[in-house]
Amino acid sequence: MSRTASDTITDWLTDFEGALAARDADRAARLFAPTSFWRDIVAFSWNITTVENPDGVRALVAATAATTDASNFRVSEEPEEADGVVTAYFTFETGVGRGSGLLRLTGEGAFTLLTTLDELKGHEETRPKGVEHGARRDRVTWAERRAAELADPDPDVVVIGGGQGGIALGARLRQLGVNHVVLDKHERPGDQWRSRYKSLCLHDPIWYDHLPYLPFPENWPVFAPKDKIGDWLEMYTRVMEVNYWGSTTARTATWDDDTKQWTVTVDRAGEEVVLRPTQLVFALGVSGKPNVPVIPGQDVFTGEQHHSSQHPGPDDYRDSRVVVIGSNNSAFDICGALWEVGADVTMVQRSSTHIVRSDSLMEFALGDLYSERAVAAGVTTHKADTIFASLPYRILPTFQIPAYQAIAEHDKDFYARLEKAGFRHDWGDDGSGLFLKYLRRGSGYYIDVGAADLVADGEITLAQGQVVELTERSVRLDTGQELPADLVVYATGYGSMNGLAADIVGAPMADRVGKVWGLGSDTTKDPGPWEGEERNMWKPTQQEGLWFHGGNLHQSRYYSLYLALQLKARLEGIPTPVYALQEVHHIS
C-alpha cells in the first residue's frame, strides 16, 4: 500500500494520542468528522458505549482521558485505502491494560473509531505450566484439584445459566484466574440443546459460531445439529475446566450494600447451598421467560398444549392435528418436523415475519466475514469480529439494507410464492433485514432451511389472525375460522431477560435494572429512546454487581472477554469509573 495511507493514519493516531495526553477534549474532537462515531468497549469508559459526532467525542475524552491514560498508539498492519476511506487496525495501552482498535478515516476526519480493552497489565492470560516439578509429599494432582474445585469452588463470580454464554464466560474467567461457578438446571452441559425438538440445528454457519480458545475442528459441519452442539459444549466445559454445577437451580439472590456481596441460595440436586459471590451474572441467551398467552378456553381444551420451549419433537404426534401459534424460527422448525412425520399441521400467523433463505444469508450477508472464502482471504474470526464490532448500531442498517435488497432480487420467485400463499412477509421496519431485527427485538424472523417451501406449497396449512378462544378440540381465530387440534404449540417467543432475573433477585431490583436487550430504535417491539448499544448487556447495570451476558454463539464468544475483564478488574481492586451508565427507560 502507498506510504500516503500509512502516513495519514500514523499522523492521526499521533495527534489523537497527543490530545489525550494533554487532556485536551476540544483538540481530540476536532480530529473527528462532523458525522462520526466512537465505539468504546471497556478501554476508556469501563462500559460498552458509542458516542456520536465531535460533541460526543469531546464529552467522552473530557470525562475519561485522565483516568484512562492512553498512550503508545501504533498501526498493527498496513492500512488500506478505498473510496476515499483509509482503514487501519492499531494497538494502544492504557494505564491498566492493553487494547486494540479499528479506525476509518476520511478527508473530514475520523468516521468510525473502535477501541477495545484486550488485557489487564499484570493479569495477562498465559499458558499454565500444569504441574510443579520436583518431589513433594503433599502433592495435589490435577484430578484432585479439579474435584475439590467442583465440590466447593468458593466463587467470586456466580453465573446463572449454563448454555453457550455461561460456558464461554466460565472459560474466560478460568483463564483469568477468577474463582467462579456456572449454574444450570439441566444435568449435563449441552442438555439445553439436547432437550429441544429433534430438528433443531444451528442456523448460523460454523465460522460465526466458534467458542473462545477452542475453535470447531476442520471437519465440523457448516450447520451443526443440536445434539452435536450439546456434546461439544459438554466436552468444552471439561477441557476448559469450567466450574459447572448441573442439576442446580438458583432460588434467591440478595445484595448487601454494606458488604458488597451477594447471598445466592441454590438447590443443587435437592441440597440447599448458599454461595456468597461479589459478582452475579445472568447468562440467559437472548431469551427470558417463555411468553405463554392466556386464552379463554385453555382450561377446557382436551388435547395437549405447551410452549415451543417444551416441545419434545414430532414423534408422538404422527397422526395428530397440530396447531402451531406463531410464524418465526421455532414455529417453522416445529411445523417442518411435524410435517416430516405425517402430522396435519397448521401455522397461525399473527403478524408479519421476515424470512431469508440460509444459503442466501450466507452468500450476501455473512460471506465476506464468516465463510470459507473469508478465511481464504485472511479474515480470521477475530478480524471478522473486530470489523463487525466497529460498525456502530446507528449506521449498521445502511450496511445491511443493500445485502437484503440483493437477497430480495436473487430470491424474488421464492418470495412471490410465499406471497401467493398468503404469507405476510417483511424486511424489517426500514428494510435492514434479519440481523437488525435480532438486535432490536430478538424475534420476528426465520432463517429458512426448508420449511418455508412447505408453507408456500400448501403442505403446511397457513391461517391468519389472532387466537381468541380454545374449545374442547379446536382453536378459534378472530376471523371466525376454527382449527381442529389435538395439540397446540405456543411458538410465541420470550420476554425480556430481566423477567427471569426478577424470579431470583425480586421485581424491584429487576425494575431498577430495566429492560434487557434492544437498541431503542423506536421500531416494532424496540421502543425508544435511542440507546446506542444493547440494553444492559455485557456491561454495568444500575444494580452494582449484577450483569447480563449471552446472545448467540458469536456474541457469547466476543463479549465474554470484555465482561470477564470487567469482572476481573473489580475483583483485583482496579478502579473502574463507568462513563455513561445505562439509564432505565423501560422495565420489561
UniProtKB/TrEMBL annotation:
UniProt xrefs under Pfam families: Pyr_redox_2 (PF07992)
InterPro entries recorded: Auxin_biosynth/cation_transpt, FAD/NAD-bd_sf, FAD/NAD-binding_dom, NTF2-like_dom_sf
SUPFAM superfamilies: FAD/NAD(P)-binding domain, NTF2-like
Domain FAD/NAD(P)-binding: 156-382
Keyword line: Oxidoreductase
Domain of life: Bacteria
Oxidoreductase recorded as keyword: yes
Name this polypeptide is given: NAD(P)/FAD-dependent oxidoreductase
